[in-house]
Amino acid sequence: MSTDFQRARTALGARLRELRIEAGHDGKRIAECLGWQRSKVSRLENGKQTPSPVDLRAWAVAVGRPDLADDLVRQVASLETRYRSWRRQLAGGHRARQELGIQVTNSTDFTRSLEVARVPGLLQTADYARNVFTVNSEFRGTTKDAEEAVRARLRRQQALYEPGKRFHFLVWEGALHVLTCSKSVMAAQLDRLTSLIGLDTVSLGILPLGAELRRAPTHGFCIYDRRLVIVETTGTELWLDDEESIRTYERAWEWFADCAVYGSQAHRLIIRARGCIQGS
After folding, report:
1. Residue-range definition of the domain harbouring residue 8
2. Domain end call among 51, 83, 115
3. In a designed cystine with 145, which of 93, 118, 166, 215 is the match (CB 3.0 to 4.6 A)?
4. What pLDDT is stored for residue 67 in this prediction?
């Protein structure tokens, strides 16, 4: 669970406790009113459990503030929207998440992406993507639908060739050497990257291993126009649309973009990585 998610859930719990105290109830009394175990009241107030909309509406009535029910529900809905468990998102397989990605990409004119451990999804070959989906399904214990997910990802990539759209990718050089697939698949993937250099809708920058960086590239993220940032962690995908988050990730983007190399220099780094794979 992300620190930001837990902080937000703790703040919601504190608000519930505040409303209970204002109503003159102790934990035992409100538990009796709601027909709950006292342990549930404690978990909610201490941010150890995410309340459901039904829980929040019942709480608002129990503390005599039914007028606040909608606000509380919107607050928890925001948590679920911003912090999405991979396990929950991928319960039915990867294809549905890829279809959602198609919608986001199609509604975006300018996409900025940073990847630190793998090739960006929009630039992946079918074989590389197939390996990503297969391994993810095994790791998370979710439905295996790699072929359907690959087809959806390739449909999403059609946006790369649409006039008027712009894509700016940054890839940490180390990602060019990460072998989570066979050497032949990785070699073909690197060939794919070199073929995209010079495409008028695509800018591909490589962050060299020896570059002096103002901050470490700790995780990947995508910025869609100036309306949405999507951040991937091991267990959660964050959808951030508030102005402060967008400004923060844009600043991080600019710092990384200033340190990247492009064109022939990027091409040389990709070819060097391919040579290392062939020689290993």
Report:
1. 3-83
2. 83
3. 93
4. 94
| Res 278: pLDDT | 78
| More confident position, 236 or 191 | 191
pLDDT digits (tens, 9 = 90+) for 98-121: 999 999 999 999 999 999 999 999
Is 171:115 a contact under the CB 8 Å cutoff? yes
Q: What is the 3-state secondary structure (H, E, C) of the chain?
A: CCHHHHHHHHHHHHHHHHHHHHCCCCHHHHHHHHCCCHHHHHHHHCCCCCCCHHHHHHHHHHCCCHHHHHHHHHHHHHHHHHEEEHHHHCCCCCHHHHHHHHHHHHCCCEEEEEECCCCCHHHCCHHHHHHHHHHHHHHHCCCCCHHHHHHHHHHHHHHHHCCCCEEEEEEEHHHHCCCCCCHHHHHHHHHHHHHHCCCCCEEEEEECCCCCCCCCCCCCEEEECCCEEEEECCCEEEEECCHHHHHHHHHHHHHHHHHCECHHHHHHHHHHHHHHHHHC
Residues 250 and 112 in one domain: yes
pLDDT at 242: 77
For the chain, how many residues are written? Answer: 280
Amino acid, res. 200: D
Task: Answer yes or no: do 173 and 210 share one domain.
Answer: yes
Q: What separation, in Å, do the N-terminal and C-terminal C-alpha atoms of the chain show?
A: 38
